[in-house]
Receptor-like protein 12 (Arabis alpina), 325 residues
Amino acid sequence: MALHLQNNSLSGVFPEESISLGLRSLDVGHNQLSGQLPKSLINCTYLEFLNVEGNKINDTFPFGLRFLPNLWILVLRSNAFHGPVSHRRDSFSFPNLRIFEISDNRFSGVLPSYYFVGWNAMVEDNMPHDARIVARYYHSSVVLTNKGLKMELVGSVFTMYKTIDVSRNRFEGDIPESIGSLKELIVLNMSYNAFTGHIPQSLTNLTNLQSLDLSQNRLSGEIPPQLGKLTFLERMNFSYNMLEGPIPQGTQIQSQNGSSFAENPGLCGAPLEDTCGGGGEEEATKEEQDEEKEEKDQVLSWTAAAIAYVPGVVCGLTIAHILTS
């Protein structure tokens, strides 16, 4: 069963009675719905696709949805969701989730290091063939961002495309190391938050990654050199952080525009204009040359003064001798 009411002028609170236990796909994106998500959604064990983007829903994160065994796509983007997205005392996993899109809300707090443990569908491609067939008929479309561009996914493409987008929220603390276990991940966007600490080395395990955006955070340290060897990584953005050190060498990184590394005062190397290593020596050499030139100028000035002084003295003595004789 599918309920697709996207791109209408629906308003008011989402009615509980509209939720059926046999629901597989629910899309009410781009309306004016407010209030909270229906609590009865946690009883929809067949639910695979949930899209409520572009509404005015004011609610906390729907933790109960993680118990749904068949949920593949969760899109909460552009609402007024708020608060943490993890429980301190409870494990957190979406075993079949392939698209996790919660951008442009007011989610906050720290993502614990184990946050992405148990997201098995992003670790390996384990979807049965019959599920791929079902996906063609029940799912609506959803627009996501890949490599900085908007793209629309339709039908069975959902089964192949795997993305995490938590951008434009209020997350802080370290980026979880467990992100590196999601080897099937294609797009990772964590921009416009307040993440701190270093870029996890585990990101270098994401060999299928095509787009990485960590811009507009407070990350420090160096960019892991191995990121330059991810052959599918076509777009990356590290701008507006506090990163330092040389930009890793590699075709994928060197082909990026300099704006992808801008506003990191400590970064150096191509594609930025700031070179690494030699800049300090060149500056010191220039200062030494300036000092040497200044010393030479002073010597020349004193020499000229001395040359002018001696004839003057001689001339003065001569005139004095004539006048007194």
Observations:
- The longest strand covers residues 141-146.
- The chain is about 20% helix and 20% strand.
- Helices lie at 129-138, 251-254, 278-324.
